[in-house]
Amino acid sequence: MMSLWMVSVTAIAADPCDARRYVEGDTYATGEIVRNGDSAYQCDVGGWCSMQAAWAYEPGAGMYWEMAWHLVGPCSDSNEPPLVSLTAPAEGEVFRIGENVVFEVDAVDPDGTVSGVTYYVDGQGIGETTTPPFAMSWQNPSLGAHQVVAVARDDRGAETESAAVSFSVIEPDVLSVRITEPTAGARFTIDSPVAVTAVVHAPHAPVDRVHFLVDGAVFATDETAPFRQSWTAMGIGEHLLSARVEAGDGTSAESDPVAIRVSSTDPPADPGRVVVGYWETWDAVIHDAGHIPLNDIHEGYNVLNVAFPVILPDGTAVLEDGMAPGEDPPEPEEIATAQAAGRKVLLSIGGAAAGMNLTSAAVVDRFIETIIPILADNGYDGIDIDIESGLVAGPSWNQLSASQEGLLRIILEVTDHFGPDFMLTMAPETAYVTGGTIAYGGPWGAYLPIIDRVRDRLDWIQMQYYNGDMFGRDGDYYPPGTVEGMVRQTEAMVEGFQVAGGPVFQGLAQDQVVIGLPAITGAGRGYMTPAKVRQGFDTLHAQYPGLRGLMTWSANWDASNGYEYVRNHRPYLDGLGPILSTR
Description:
This protein has 583 residues and is α/β, with parallel strands linked by helices. Strands 22-23-26-27-28-29-34-35 form an eight-stranded parallel barrel. A hairpin with a 2-residue loop joins β7 and β8 (124-129).
């Protein structure tokens, strides 16, 4: 017994900070020392130390870590930053317009792992990859000279920037044409003029003519430079503009198409303070409201989220109701009428009938491919993300799970397609956001790194303050349906909070926060009377005058109760005056 004790003491005295690092779910023996963060810990209860439950037992971070471990002592921060160098493109490499430029790196971490690489072209971030070997393709690069750098990040947050590599993109050595005006995602009202400009590169023969096309049909022809024509916008929805050049030697070439959107009226201005109502496509007998045409919903709702399209197993999005087949979603003309009245109309993705395998690249590709035409052809103002299943957190804040990568890709590719005027909102359950104060894993906190990566293009988050546990910045539990819970949840969203076992989640701008509540007791656990809602909002408004407004599930439920929700809260919000943005 004495010799065993001496061996144990010697192991501790050598240097506890040289011990292996803690990994959730690994097996640890009682008495074993590990390093986690900047401290060393000794395991007191092997079974608890080894549990797949970092939220509870991660040394120094879990809620109950002191039941399983004790602190041995601090360690100096000896984290070595990652090493990164660009291996592609080669210095001075030349690409032709239309080619994709592939970026590749050699990235290693001497004392850990590389968790991600972000690429910057001419100082602008073009994307991040968290999957080895950390390659990325820059699609449709612009003409001219460029510089790219790569920034590698390790599993402890240290970053290293590579040396810059110069390359250039030039015109091809063949006949080519491209549309330079308008840009992809541009929006026009019906009957307005659309100026279309084409740039031709003709290295071997003079240009005879340039045809301008919309949706594949020629609408004008030009025989002299500069090649510029005007098309009168017609037909609500998305249209594809292109150009075809014909040269004197008999050769011809066609440009890539540029997608634009045509609506019946100018897009409504920023809605200011909002009352958001989810509009159910189905005839829900449960609340006796029946099917309500979109434009029959109470005018106090200045944002309507159409819920929900169906998502087939292969990722195909179908604009029909999955709860009650036969009920029709709104027609483009109905959406245009709502927009003309000053409303925003978004398509909400998620709900009970719209689960999706976010880990499958093929499913995500198919969803993006099919949802973009639905959004364009019907003239939606934006997309609302209401995914409630299939999303799980990655192994660490800096390393996204496959499902997080899939959802992030959907958001980025859809919003990139439609441009900066396209709206993005989210409606996660509390576990996915403020649940991150007590745990990070599974659904807990799974939205947080996604929110962090898209906060610059996010209009607002309307978290569901109902049907689930509510946690404040301190990690304490607050029951739904209470004034204190409403206040504490909102504080967490604006002020930010410490993520369990991770970094601090930086709070959102005040006008990026909308409070989501059920319209009536039958709509969800957490109903609050109008008086309670006002009490909570009064408290919050004194501290955060820029809060965006309120959301409810659903406008249909509200209709079954005489529109109690919107009739009380629309005048109240209007009386608070204009929003002073804190962005």
